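re: ur question from yesterday

yeah so i grabbed the chain u mentioned. its 345 aa long if i counted rite. heres the sequnce exactly as i have it in my notes:
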Amino acid sequence: MTEERWEIAWSHQVEGRVGAIACLGEDSLIAAGSVVRRLNADGDFLWRREFSFDVYRLEHDGTNVAVLAGTAFFLLDLATGEPLGEGRAVAGGFRDVVSRPGGGWLLSDRGDHIHLFNRRGRGIRRLRPGPLQKMIGWLDREILLAQDDDGCLRALRLGGDDAQRRIETTRWSWVSRLYRGRLLVQHVDGSLQEGVPNPFGWDRIDRIPGDGLVPIQAAWTGEGWWALDVAGDLIRLPPGDDVERRPAGDLLSSNHADRMLSATRDGLIRMWIGPHLVSRRKLLFEEIASGEIRRLDWEQRQVIFEAARDAEDSGMISRAIELYESLGRAEDVRRLISIREGADV
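ran it thru and got these structure tokens back, copy pasting raw so excuse formatting
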């Protein structure tokens, strides 16, 4: 095991089909069936909230979490899990949700509309950019990058004249979310690339070495990209000659730094921690173990001391001397030797 290896901090098996997960700093959000749960850094459950329909999407803004379930959109307080309002629904339901940089939420429905809500979940307005596969992320406070139904990338300006344009004509078979201005895209020929998009094209786009990788989700960490492929394996990018595949599941999320959350659809949840957290955790366990050894040593010494006193009181001087010697109590040893020698005279 190398020092650069990520390890599993904890795992849980939850009931129900997992529809969505989200890494929240050190904590995590899990949607399994119709239930949303928040877990802390140690994997302990903090709160749960149940809905009438299965949950299929979670998105948080650091204060609240947006929940898509059935045909509706709900907001929960992250700290308590309490609902904010009664939720909003549209015919056919919503497809995707992202938080807005200035506060609030943007949702795409399963038709050709997107819906703007304020931070408390109150509707502001509705736009009609056409069908969208995925909302990728924000290029700035007003411009959203999205993938349309043809697989092309579009820049949508949600302000002023609400203009939109395709930034290029390439049709991508898969696109990641936007993290710190970067995203992963896969061409229909299978090649995987990382790029920095702008409203008119690319600042740069580079091919990632390696063939045969078919990602279904990706996460950004302090060490770069990780991808979850169709086989359910977690792979660090770019994959090297000795590429390590670690079973993870079907869903992947990160805190963009040192934690990743993965889940299988049938309920196996894992929290992965980066190398520096692994080292810190190892040191903590060593300190705990050392303290436990010291505590056990003290308890054992106390038992031996009491046994020595009992032996002395019972007149078993030689046995008491042996016990006191094992404790290093030289004064008691000399005292008992003197008593024994006096008795022998």
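noticed a couple things. The mean pLDDT is 89. also The domain at 7-274 is CATH 2.130.10.10 (Methylamine Dehydrogenase; Chain H).
anyway ttyl
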